[in-house]
Specification:
Helix content is 70%, strand content 0%. It is mainly α. It is flat. The relative contact order is 0.13. The mean pLDDT is 81. Keywords: Signal.
Length: 246
């Protein structure tokens, strides 16, 4: 089964390289001087509380600089560049970079806002969450038979490509749910809700796990799987929180 937290970290790392590595193609030199990619690399991309406080001013300034300059450089805002219909080739790459900018700009503002619940939850729990991430053993000890249940839910899908996408989507949902439950067990409920909030803030960047390609009825597949897993009410609610992340 796909280990969703590991995949999410790979997407996070790739997106950060895409974000900061391509900034000099359009953003003025003054923005590149604020580029924090070296700091993130040195800290393993998930800074602890003290490191976050040190990184926030520089990273916020980078986004402010980028937002000031992108309109003049491209003739469009990040929002206009990110949300284009039927993009092709280069425009799709531009749209992806713009979406990364928008997502991290929003996440940075939220997590660096000392009054926000995400900031406080991150500061209090990131060390424990990172420890769970390092030692995450997927769904061992939480649920059994998830693969079989997923196959049963999808047994009426005949198209192999669609079946593969749906399977990947549901596997990622289950693995992500198990990770957040493990965070709950190791670090507590506040840490779990913080990890869910953080993953939700990155939702536009983790859509590569397959769910974005599906029609709205993917919600029905998730609901059926949630019922078939035969979870107690508390665990079911925690799984539902994670299922809604993609």
């Amino acid at each position: 089964m796909t280990i969703a937290p590991a995949m999410t970290m790979k997407v996070l790392v790739f997106s950060l390289f895409l974000l900061f590595g391509m900034s000099d193609a359009c953003i003025e030199v003054e923005c590149n001087e604020l580029n924090p990619i070296g700091d993130f690399l040195e800290l393993g991309f998930l800074p602890n509380g003290e490191q976050l406080l040190n990184l926030c001013p520089k990273t916020l300034q980078f986004f402010e600089c980028a937002n000031r300059n992108i309109k003049e450089c491209q003739g469009k805002t990040f929002e206009e560049l990110a949300y284009v219909n039927d993009c092709k080739d280069e425009s799709c790459v531009t749209a992806r970079v713009a979406l990364v900018y928008l997502t991290f700009d929003k996440v940075t503002k939220e997590i660096c806002n000392r009054s926000s619940a995400l900031h406080q939850g991150y500061m209090d729990n990131i060390d424990c969450i990172k420890n769970v991430l390092r030692n995450h053993d997927n769904c061992d000890g939480i649920i059994t038979g998830a693969d079989e249940k997923i196959s049963e839910v999808l047994n009426n899908i005949e198209n192999e490509h669609e079946l593969s996408i749906r399977k990947r989507c549901l596997e990622a949902a289950v693995a992500r749910a198990c990770f957040t439950v493990q965070v709950d067990k190791a670090c507590g409920e506040v840490a779990r809700t913080t990890s869910v909030a953080f993953l939700r803030s990155l939702k536009p960047l983790v859509l590569s796990e397959g769910c974005y390609e599906l029609d709205d009825d993917v919600a029905d597949s998730k609901a059926k799987l949630l019922d078939d897993l035969d979870l107690n009410e508390s665990l079911k609610n925690k799984f539902k929180d994670a299922f809604d992340l993609a």
